[in-house]
Every structure is written in C-alpha cells, then in structure tokens.
C-alpha cells in the first residue's frame, strides 16, 4: 500500500521532539508511553511477563462493561495536523475494532483532569481499524492544536500513534530578535531535497541534538559528478548572524565540504557561507558578519553524506515577525 504524502511531514507527537503521553484510563498490559516511541514497534515471540505477552505498544485490559479506552498526548511540536497514523503492528486478536481522534489547543500546562473537562474537537471520527497494520487518517481541520486524544473502541492494543503535520510556533514564547531561523519548532520547513535515502532531511532542523546517526539526514553514495542539497523555508524573513553545521556521529560518511546560500524568494540565490571544508563528527560554527536578509536557505553538501543538524541563528525582520504572528493567528 502506498503511504499518503502527508506522512512525509514532521511527526508532531514523537518523544524525539518532546511529545508526552500525559494520561490513559488503563494500561494494564502495556504502557501508554510506547505510543510515541520514535523507533518502529518490535515483537519478540514468547516474551512473557507477569501480565502475559509483553507488547511494544499501549494495551488495555478486556472490558466487561460498556465504554471505551483513551489516552491523551501532548504534542512536542504544536501545529496543524495533516494526518494521523494508528499503527496496530503485531496486535492481531487484541487490536481495537475502531478508533477516533480528538484535538485541543490550550495555553500553558493543564493537568490531565483539567484537559478532560475541556472542549475537544473531533478530527478523526470513529473509524474501523485493521489489525497488525498502519491505519491512515487524513485530517482536514486547519487549526493549530497542542494536544491529541486517541480513543479506542472499546479496548485493545495500539503499537504507535503518529501525528504528522506542520509545526506552528507561538510567538509569545519566542524571542523574535534572536532565534534559530531554521528551526522546525519555530516554523521553518523543508521545501526540497536531492536525496533522502537513509533518513528525512527534516531531521536536520529538528529540536535538540541527534543522539545517533539515524537522527540526522543522510544521502545515498553518489556515483556521479553532482552533489546533494536541501532547501528550507525559514521561520520568517530574517538576518542571520551565525550558522552551525553539525556532523556529530557521522565519521566515515560526513560530507567533505558544505556551502550555504540564501534567497528572498526561493529562486534567486546569493552566497551566505562559501564552500567550506568539514570535519567528521564535529559541530562547526561560523559567524556571518556580512549577512543579508533571506527567507529561504539552501545547504549544499559535497559530494554526499550525512549531517546531524543545521542551525541558523539570527533575528527576524519586521516582515518576518509579521509572518510568524500571522501563521499563529491563522491556526487559532
């Protein structure tokens, strides 16, 4: 089965970007935290604990009364949800027959009890699930959400919950005069890439440091005279002051060189950082004293390889500030 295009969008709920499972009404067989683990689910035959087969997912007890089970997830990256994947991998005779998904946008950090009393919006109506499968549900609501509630009808097990979408930052929580213009959590997004054979280029601009090589962006080995590249729409128009090219964990497969270009419109490009030699497994930092205003950034690596993170620290222009604020208001 071909995966929907929206599954290429960043994961908003993953533990890797700061997501958390705040509450579940039941998790007797398997813990709710497994829902947002970054790794794909695994199954080990005859791996039994005191409560039965140990599953890499969230599993509730068999219901003997009417009702449904639910879990509340705080998004690590609040934003506009494009689609949800309810993955029932390895749950065969114990998967839920149906599920629904609701969403909520709140300010601050309410408790699970407070969240349960709020006005949740249905973004995926009650829908049938298949066992041992990825179940894809497109979302058409364009509002910005901070929390997701997954309800399974009536009980059973779900291996992973993936929430894909576009991060939308709250400008009240940003210093618009000094921030990472290329950060996913601030509203930047990948607009193109030459190659994503081993991993997504969205990893380049993800929050935090890469813990392993697989949390960066790595291309296939080139057998021609070209080079690999990625383009980014910045959080807003800004003036950079410092670029950071991090090859941490990439040792025999780091690029030999890299260059940065900028653009106001994504079409005409000018030099931001000239072609510069890189070292493996190193965090490189380069001051940009003569930087110009830009809204788009292009990273070229020569000839191929992997990079853990790309950062572009600077300030938003007046126009850039309005872009960030308008994006937030559009999702309110």
Automatic annotation (TrEMBL):
What this protein catalyses is: allantoate + H2O = (S)-ureidoglycolate + urea
Spell out the molecular function terms from Gene Ontology. allantoicase activity
Instruction: State its Enzyme Commission number(s).
Output: 3.5.3.4
Gene Ontology BP, a term: purine nucleobase metabolic process
Which UniProt keywords are listed? Hydrolase, Purine metabolism
Pathway info: Nitrogen metabolism; (S)-allantoin degradation; (S)-ureidoglycolate from allantoate (aminidohydrolase route): step 1/1
InterPro entries assigned: Allantoicase, Allantoicase_dom, Galactose-bd-like_sf
Instruction: Tell me one Pfam family matched here.
Output: Allantoicase
Residues in Allantoicase domain copies: 18-167, 187-316
Which NCBIfam families does this chain map to? allantoicase
Q: Which family does it belong to?
A: Belongs to the allantoicase family.
Q: PANTHER family annotated for this entry?
A: ALLANTOICASE, INACTIVE ALLANTOICASE-RELATED
Would you tell me the protein name for this molecule?
A: Probable allantoicase
* Lineage, opening ranks: Bacteria, Bacillati, Actinomycetota, Actinomycetes, Pseudonocardiales
